[in-house]
Design goal:
By secondary structure, the chain is of the alpha+beta class. It has nine helices and twelve strands. 28% of the residues lie in helices and 19% in strands. The structure holds zinc ion (ZN).
C-alpha cells in the first residue's frame, strides 16, 4: 500500500492476498508453563509437567514473557496472521487497551491486513496496510493463540481479531498487565519510552559501554530496559548462571573480559531459548531455568540452589558456581 496516506486509515475490503492455509495454532506450544492458571491444571496435578507448572505458578510469580517469548510470538504472528483481511475486532476487556478506545481499534483495523511485524525488547509491533502499527506488550501472562473454531476461544481472551478466512487471533492475558495499542511510528514510541537497544541487537562495544558507565548489581543492569531491552528476571538469572557471575556482583568489580563473557552468555542463552520456542520443556537440562525453585539442585555441581532478592525480584543462583569476585 505504498503512498496514499489516509488519516483515518480505513483499509480496503477487497482481498489481494490468498494465503489461506488451514493451520490451527492450537498445536503451538509456545509458552513456559507460567501462563497456566492453577484452576486450569488442578485436575491433572499428577502429571510431571503440570507439577512443574504449579511450581512456576507458585514459587516464581515473576515468570513473565521476555525477549525469547516475544520473539516466538512474533514468528507465530508471521506464520499465522499476515496478509489476511481482518473482518472483525472483538475487544473483551478494554482494560488492556492503551491510548485507543474499543471503537477506534475496531474502526481502524476492520478491513485491514497485518503485513509484517517487528520486535524490540519485550514489545511486539504488527504493521497494518493502514499506515499504523498494532502494539502488543504481554505483561505478566500475555500470549497469542490462532485458531479456527469459536468454541476454542481461550478463556482469558482480551482482544480477538477475526479474519476473513474464518480463523481468529486471540490476545489472551489472564492477569491483564499486558497492553494493546495503535501507533503511527514505532521509532518514536521507542524513543518516548527511552528503551535501550534490543538485547540481540546490541554490539559488544555498546554492551561494554553500558557496564562501564553504570553502577549497581550486575543483575539490576541486565534488567534495566532503558539500558538493554528484552531481558527479564528468568533469563537474567540464566545468563548469569552461564557466565558464572553472582547476581549481586557490583558492576564496578567486573573485569572487561568478564563483561565480554556476560555478553556472549546473553546472546547464546537468548538465541537458544528462541530456538526452543521459549518452551521450558525444550530447554537444555544443563540450564537453571527448569530448576528454579526451593530445594532444587544446581545442574552443574548438584548443590542446592539459593535465592535472594535483587531490585525487588527473586534471583536464583548457585553460590558454588557463581562467584562475586571476577
Ligand atoms: Zn553449582
Amino acid at each position: 500500500m505504498a503512498g496514499a496516506f489516509r488519516p483515518m486509515s480505513f483499509c480496503s475490503s477487497t482481498s489481494h492476498h490468498g494465503l489461506n492455509t488451514a493451520w490451527d495454532g492450537d498445536l503451538f506450544n509456545n509458552r513456559r508453563n507460567s501462563s497456566i492458571s492453577l484452576e486450569d491444571i488442578a485436575p491433572l496435578s499428577f502429571n510431571k509437567d503440570v507439577t512443574q507448572a504449579i511450581l512456576h505458578a507458585t514459587n516464581d510469580v515473576n515468570a513473565m514473557p521476555e525477549l525469547p517469548d516475544v520473539e516466538t510470538f512474533k514468528r507465530y504472528v508471521d506464520r499465522t496472521s499476515l496478509h489476511r483481511r481482518i473482518s472483525g475486532v472483538d475487544v473483551r476487556s478494554a482494560y488492556v487497551l492503551k491510548g485507543v478506545s474499543m471503537d477506534e481499534l475496531a474502526r481502524r483495523l476492520k478491513g485491514c491486513r497485518f503485513e509484517s511485524s517487528r520486535r524490540h525488547g519485550k514489545h511486539l509491533f504488527v504493521r497494518t496496510d493502514g499506515d499504523f502499527w498494532l502494539r502488543l506488550h504481554f505483561g505478566m501472562t500475555g500470549s497469542l493463540r490462532y485458531f479456527k473454531h469459536e468454541q476454542r476461544t481461550p478463556r482469558h481472551t482480551r482482544v480477538l481479531f477475526v479474519f476473513a478466512n474464518g480463523h481468529r487471533l486471540a490476545v489472551e492475558d489472564q492477569r491483564k498487565f499486558g497492553e494493546v495499542g495503535l501507533l503511527k511510528d514505532v521509532d518514536e514510541f521507542l524513543k518516548k519510552r527511552a528503551l535501550g537497544r534490543d538485547a540481540l541487537d546490541i554490539s559488544l562495544p555498546q554492551f561494554k559501554e553500558i557496564f562501564g558507565k553504570h553502577r549497581g548489581a550486575v543483575k539490576t543492569i541486565l534488567l534495566n530496559q532503558k539500558l538493554i531491552a528484552g531481558i527479564g528476571n528468568i533469563y537474567a538469572d540464566e545468563i548469569l548462571f552461564r557466565a558464572r557471575i553472582h547476581p549481586a556482583t557490583q558492576v564496578s568489580a567486573l573485569k572487561e573480559k568478564t563483561v565480554a563473557k556476560l555478553f556472549r552468555a546473553a546472546r547464546d542463552i537468548l538465541k537458544k531459548a528462541i530456538d526452543a520456542k521459549a518452551d521450558m520443556d525444550r530447554m537444555p537440562k544443563s540450564w537453571l531455568l527448569p530448576r528454579r525453585g526451593k530445594g532444587r539442585k544446581c545442574p552443574r555441581c548438584g548443590r542446592e540452589l539459593k535465592s535472594t532478592t535483587i531490585g525487588g525480584r527473586t534471583a536464583w543462583f548457585c553460590a558454588q558456581c557463581q562467584k562475586r569476585a571476577h
